[in-house]
Amino acid sequence: MWQLDSSTLITVITVLASSIGIVIGAIVPAVMEGIAVQKALDGITRQPEAANDLRTTLLISMALLESTAIYVLLVILVLLFANPLLERFF
Amino acid sequence: MEAVIPTVVFYLFGLPITDTMISTWVMMGLIILVAFLIKKFKPTLGEMIVEMIYSIVSSVMPEDSDLSKYLPFLGTLAIFLVIGNIFSIFPMMVSPTANLNTTAALAILVFFAVHFYGIRDKGLIGYLKDFANPIFMLPMEIIGQISRTLSLAVRLFGNILSTDLIVAIVFSLIPFLVPLPLIALGMLTGILQAYIFIVLASLYVGSAIEVEAMEQERRQLKNEASRSV
């Protein structure tokens, strides 16, 4: 095995962690949003006159759910483009 | 890196002027020009836009509240966001909201507007009394105020930046016809995010002025109960 110097090691680990993190951070909110849409559609088919109220509530809650995925994306953008660890240790 | 951190175009009296600022100036000029043109040549279109914003805001504000006091602020936000979120479709321009500084400024505006409207409606003492009704909820309320301002800023920024980044990446791979559906998706996301920002802002304003009505109801109930006893 060849010897990695530590900044290369940190970069490699950062890229790996970012990939795994964005995958998890994309899957979980997507599944949860799917559940929310499913329930809202159930409600609309059962009671079509409540569609307008349900749509507003659904959009707001989807935005709130979506923001967790956006937080993951932001953390990963910081890790990839402006990595604080590389500057701190080297 | 160039997509995340805005590039400085030139220096004006020692102040760095970024491409975001230039896009915002162009957008402001465009909005003012189009507003004058609409007012002069097609006033019915202007009425239609205002009524659309009114119906969005009134769907989440409390009933029987006078919306004309809050509509100037929320409507300005709506017009700015709808055009600002899709502004990167114009050549040489970037979306002003793909920069954290713009969205943080908008979120802080909403934060101060909520308290301003609350204090204007109820007076300082009444607003502070209603702010945390059982007093032990005060820390939760303060954390909620800070975190919703933060999430308002970061959500808009992240959504607009991520769609712009996807378009840029695909454009660098295949620059012909293939990015078009992604640009359409970005426009859809931008308009949806503008809608969500407006709905959340009016929800917060509504929650700052609404407690009065609940409190009034409770006081009425209390009066009736004491009278019946």
Detailed description of the structure:
With 90 residues, chain A is mostly helical. Chain A has helices at 6-46, 51-81, 84-89. In chain A, helix 1 (6-46) packs antiparallel against helix 2 (51-81). Chain A is elongated and about 65 Å long. The two termini of chain A are 24 Å apart. The relative contact order of chain A is 0.17. Chain B has seven helices and two strands. Helices cover 75% and strands 4% of the residues of chain B. In chain B, helix 1 crosses helix 2. In chain B, strands 1-2 form a two-stranded antiparallel sheet. The model of chain B has no long low-confidence stretch (mean pLDDT 85). Chain B has one domain. Chain B starts with 7 loop residues before the first strand and ends with a helix. Chain B has helices spanning 19-41, 43-58, 71-85, 100-122, 124-131, 138-173, 179-228, and strands spanning 8-12, 15-18. With 229 residues, chain B is mainly alpha-helical. Classes of the chains: A mainly alpha (90), B mainly alpha (229). The interface between A and B is medium-sized, with 15 and 20 residues.
Structure in a nutshell:
The complex is a heterodimer of chains A (90) and B (229). Chain A is an all-alpha fold and 90 residues long.
Ordered list of secondary-structure elements with their pairings:
The complex is a heterodimer of chains A (90) and B (229).
Chain A: H1 6-46, H2 51-81, H3 84-89
Helix pairs in contact in A: 1-2
Chain B: E1 8-12, E2 15-18, H1 19-41, H2 43-58, H3 71-85, H4 100-122, H5 124-131, H6 138-173, H7 179-228
Antiparallel strand pairs in B: 1-2
Overall tally of domains of chain B: 1
Helix/strand structural class of chain A: mainly alpha
- Count of helices of chain A? 3
Summarize the helix and strand pattern of chain A as letters.
Answer: HHH
Keywords:
heterodimer; A: 90 residues; mainly alpha; elongated; B: 229 residues
